[in-house]
Specification:
Elements: E1 2-8, E2 26-27, E3 30-31, H1 32-42, E4 46-53, E5 68-71, H2 76-84, E6 91-98, H3 106-117, E7 122-128, E8 135-136, E9 142-144, E10 152-154, E11 158-161, H4 162-175, H5 183-189, E12 195-198, H6 209-223
Parallel strand pairs: 1-4, 1-6, 4-5, 7-12
Antiparallel strand pairs: 2-3, 6-11, 7-10, 7-11, 8-9
This protein binds cytidine-5'-monophosphate.
EC number: 2.7.7.60
Family: Belongs to the IspD/TarI cytidylyltransferase family. IspD subfamily.
InterPro entries: IspD, IspD/TarI, IspD/TarI_cytidylyltransf_bact, ISPD_synthase_CS, Nucleotide-diphossugar_trans
Length: about 220
């Protein structure tokens, strides 16, 4: 059984408000994608890394840790599909990771891969939700307050049996879905179970400017 990891890095990251694509914004003196590739390469389980890169960045030195680089698509789902298309033939487990979760530790990759290898065909890392969440209608009125103890904030890397994630993406194309919220959602649409393992605080997604401050603090703590 061989584990491959697709790191999607082709988003523009407009909420970060920077000129360059988010994965190439620097923290601790290195682009986010560089940090993500460091972690993937330190995972004991990952044997092959595919990066899905934004236009014009395919040859960037920050991607030197990747085995294969492919161009991105219009949506995250398209970018993942581009990565799935170039997996090596012997990869039967696939981790799919957001470059924006650049500080997810190697142990998280290992935990997710191990859970797939243990027999779960779809695995997501999840953490408890700290805010109370409300369902709100178009008029701005609260219609429900879900029980927080049943909710998880889901991270990446998400892990899959290759046959299952390929089938899930193919079914999405047939349905005309183009912008799935995450890869596990496509497996859920097949009616298949998705198993949750413990996520990690460092696997937060860099989205807004304050997330860059948190990321540099985490890096400084690691270096101390
Ligand atoms: O925008 P957001 O942070 O939710 O994107 C999640 C991940 O998907 C990021 O790492 C981003 O680079 C990637 N992405 C992509 N191709 C797109 C859109 C997003 O690879 N078209």
């Amino acid at each position: 059984m061989s584990v491959a990891c697709i790191v999607v890095a082709a988003g523009r990251g407009e909420r970060l408000g920077q000129e360059r694509p988010k994965a190439f914004v620097e923290v601790g003196g290195r682009p986010l994608i560089w940090h993500a590739l460091q972690a993937a390469s330190r995972s004991a389980r990952v044997a092959h890394v595919v990066v899905v890169a934004p236009d014009g960045y395919e040859g960037d030195p920050a991607l030197s840790g990747a085995d294969t680089v492919v161009p991105g698509g219009a949506t995250r789902q398209h970018s993942v599909a581009n990565g799935l298309a170039v997996l090596p033939p012997d990869a039967d487990v696939v981790l799919i990771h957001d470059a924006a979760r650049c500080l997810a530790p190697p142990s998280l990759y290992d935990d997710v891969a191990a859970d797939v290898l243990a027999g779960h065909d779809a695995v997501v890392p999840g953490v408890a939700v700290v805010d109370t969440l409300k369902v709100v209608d178009g008029a701005g009125l609260v219609t429900a307050t879900p029980d927080r103890t049943e909710l998880r904030a889901v991270q990446t890397p998400q892990g899959f049996a290759r046959t299952v994630i390929e089938r899930a993406h193919a079914a999405a194309v047939e349905r005309g879905d183009t912008d799935a919220p995450d890869d596990a959602a496509l497996v859920e649409r097949l009616g298949l179970p998705v198993h949750v393992v413990a996520g990690h605080a460092d696997a937060f997604k860099v989205t807004r400017p304050q997330d860059l401050l948190l990321a540099s603090t985490v890096l400084a703590r690691r270096a101390a």
